[in-house]
Each structure stands twice: as structure tokens, then as C-alpha cells.
Design a protein that fits this description.
mainly alpha; Tyrosyl-Transfer RNA Synthetase; 2 domains; two-stranded parallel ribbon; 5 strands; binds tryptophan; Rossmann fold
Length: 343
């Protein structure tokens, strides 16, 4: 078994050394604790095990469910600093934004020709996102972004794609596209595997799902005071005695889960210790656990600035462009579009 597997709590895939791994984030807001325990910790482990890790900050994917992309420059910079603060190695991580890699997007055209409209409209994750967006009409990008995401994965011929469960339909589509392309034009793309990571079910402090763009979570870049203030105003319930009962008391269970993840403790044990201390003590214990956990991340973040983030994106963009152009050349050649050839 490789080191990568032993370091990964939920994964069942053994990664040979130097597996090429691609994953991504939509830059819609600051990364939070859910991201850390769901994916960032895994990425760091996979990288430390010697794999080649690429991360796409999917700026073109932001516009799937909203009209305005927001302050992308600031949000992207903060996300890159989140990566570095969590321990990704600035010398070995390839991070890039979609918009810096033109050849990647050109792959989308042949890929679109390989998928059916019915297939696109049946994608369960897309259906769910359309529902959640609460919009009366849906743009073409919402329906087709899973094909775009296939280009994110296939441009660099990734072997492994760490994703949450909601992304599995997209990975299935990516594999279909690779298979269909190879069948029709000859072998160009390897079929990537999913590396399923379980997002811990964390609620926001208002009881809704913890979301990047909802502003209800604990961001990795929150200061100790911000964390304490957020937890003081977190929703709980009116029962004095603290117990871990996720079904009946979701808000209290959520704080216990957060404290448990940060302190590496079992939420029920924490509840037993707090017991009659009530919500005030629960919030204090949780704030202390979160702050102790975030402290080393904050210290690492303080060692980087906006220039580091920019340089990382520049270098990542250069490498991604080189890979994308190479793949696009192969695709054009396979499709009979190499017009500079004499014959
Ligand atoms: N859709 C992914 C998400 O919302 C982000 C993403 C974009 C991605 N491109 C990707 C994930 C490529 C994996 C591979 O989380």
C-alpha cells in the first residue's frame, strides 16, 4: 500500500507514486472548515506522498448559477493563500485559473459533439443545482459545464480525480467522453478514476448547510476573535443539557462535530464532558478547539502574501498551458485537423 492510501481516511484507491491528480474549486468564496476536512487535508496528504497535484480554480464555472462572478481577483487570491496555508507545497503544486488556459476550453467543442442533450439534462447534480439556484431560466453554461469539467480533467490526462459524491456524475461523463473520443478517433485519453472523499456534514452556524457563498461557515482565514464571535451567535436550542443527538438536535450536534473534528475527538465524548455546562460552555469549547486547530494554518498563511499567490498562478498557468496545447495538438491530429502537414 502506498503512503497516500494510509494517509487518506476515506479512500480505497492505492495511488502509485507520481500519479497525476487533478481537482478543482469554484471560486465563489473563502474556503471553510468543511473544505478542509472534506478535501484539502487529502490533497496535502496526496501531494506529500509524491503525486503530481494540479488544481484548477474554475473561474469560468462561477457563472453557472449567477449573473455576476463577484470580485474574482480577491476571491482567487484568498483561495490560493488557503491552499498554501493548509500545507500545499508552493514548489510542487500546479494551481491555475481556467481563464489563463485557452487551449483547455477548445477541447470542449469536440467533447460537446460526443454527448447527447438527453444525457446533459438528466445529470442529477446539475438538476439539483438548477433547483437550488431558484432561477426561472437556466443558461447554456449550467447545462454544459460538466462537459467543460471533462476538459479540466482530460487536458492534462489526469489518472485520479479527488471529488465529493455530488461530482460523480461529472466524472462518469468525463469517462464516457474519453471512451467515445478514443473509439471514434483513436487512443488519446486515459480514463480517469474518482477518488471519493466524504465531505463531513457540517452545517453553517445558522443551521443551513455550510456554504462558501452563504457566509455562514467558519472560514480558514477567520481570526480568533471572528471565530469566537461567530460561535457566540451560533444557533443552538433551549435544552440545558448537552448531548450528541444529530437527528433531534442538529445545531448542537453540529457544534460538537466541528469541535470533534478540530480536536480529533469523538463528538459524544465531548458532549459527555460538557453535559450540564450548557450552550455557553459548548460554544466556548468549540471556539477553543477551532482556534487551536486554525492557529498553525494562520501562522503558515502569514508567511505568504499576494505576490506569492500571483507567482504561483503564473507558474501554474504556464505549465497548464503547455499541457493543454500538447493535448490539443494530439486531438487535432486524431481528428484530421493538422493542416500544416504535407500530403
Ligand atoms: N465542480 C467542482 C465543484 O463544484 C469544481 C471543479 C471544477 C472540479 N473543475 C473540476 C472538480 C475538475 C474536479 C475536477 O466542486
Amino acid at each position: 500500500m502506498s503512503t497516500a492510501t494510509t494517509l487518506l481516511a476515506e479512500s480505497s484507491v492505492t495511488t502509485p507514486l507520481s500519479t497525476r491528480i487533478l481537482t478543482g474549486d469554484r471560486p465563489t468564496g473563502a474556503l471553510h472548515l468543511g473544505h478542509y476536512f472534506g478535501t484539502l487535508a487529502n490533497r496535502v496528504a496526496l501531494q506529500r506522498a509524491g503525486n503530481d497535484l494540479l488544481i484548477v480554480v474554475a473561474d469560468y464555472q462561477v457563472m453557472t448559477d449567477r449573473d455576476h462572478p463577484g470580485d474574482l481577483v480577491r476571491v482567487v487570491r484568498e483561495i490560493v493563500l488557503d491552499y498554501l496555508a493548509c500545507g500545499l507545497d508552493p514548489d510542487r503544486t500546479t494551481v491555475f485559473v481556467h481563464s489563463a488556459v485557452p487551449a483547455l476550453h477548445q477541447l470542449m467543442l469536440p467533447f460537446l459533439s460526443l454527448v447527447g442533450m438527453g444525457e446533459l439534462s438528466r445529470n442529477p447534480t446539475v438538476k439539483e443545482e438548477i433547483k437550488l439556484s431558484g432561477r426561472s431560466s437556466v443558461g447554456g453554461l449550467m447545462m454544459t459545464y460538466p462537459v467543460h469539467q471533462a476538459a479540466d480533467v482530460l487536458f492534462c490526462k489526469a489518472d485520479l480525480v479527488p471529488v465529493g459524491r455530488d461530482q460523480l456524475p461529472h466524472l462518469e461523463l468525463t469517462r464516457s467522453i474519453a471512451r467515445r473520443f478514443n473509439d471514434r478517433y483513436g487512443p488519446v485519453f486515459p480514463l480517469p478514476d474518482a477518488l471519493l472523499g466524504e465531505m463531513p456534514v457540517l452545517l453553517g452556524l445558522d443551521g443551513r448547510k455550510m456554504g462558501k457563498s452563504l457566509g455562514n461557515g467558519i472560514s480558514l482565514r477567520d481570526t480568533a476573535d471572528e471565530v469566537a464571535a461567530k460561535l457566540r451567535s451560533a444557533r443552538t436550542d433551549s435544552e440545558r443539557h448537552i448531548a450528541f443527538e444529530p437527528e433531534r438536535r442538529p445545531e448542537v450536534a453540529n457544534l460538537l462535530r466541528i469541535a470533534g473534528l478540530c480536536a480529533g475527538r469523538d463528538p459524544s465524548d465531548l458532549a459527555d464532558e460538557i453535559a450540564g455546562g450548557g450552550a455557553a460552555m459548548l460554544k466556548r469549547v468549540t471556539a477553543d478547539a477551532v482556534n487551536a486547530f486554525l492557529d498553525p494554518i494562520r501562522r503558515r498563511r502569514a508567511g505568504f502574501d499576494g505576490t506569492d499567490a500571483r507567482l504561483l498562478l503564473e507558474r501554474g498557468g504556464r505549465r497548464a498551458n503547455a499541457l493543454a496545447e500538447e493535448t490539443l495538438d494530439e486531438v487535432r491530429a486524431a481528428m484530421g485537423m493538422s493542416y500544416d502537414q504535407r500530403r
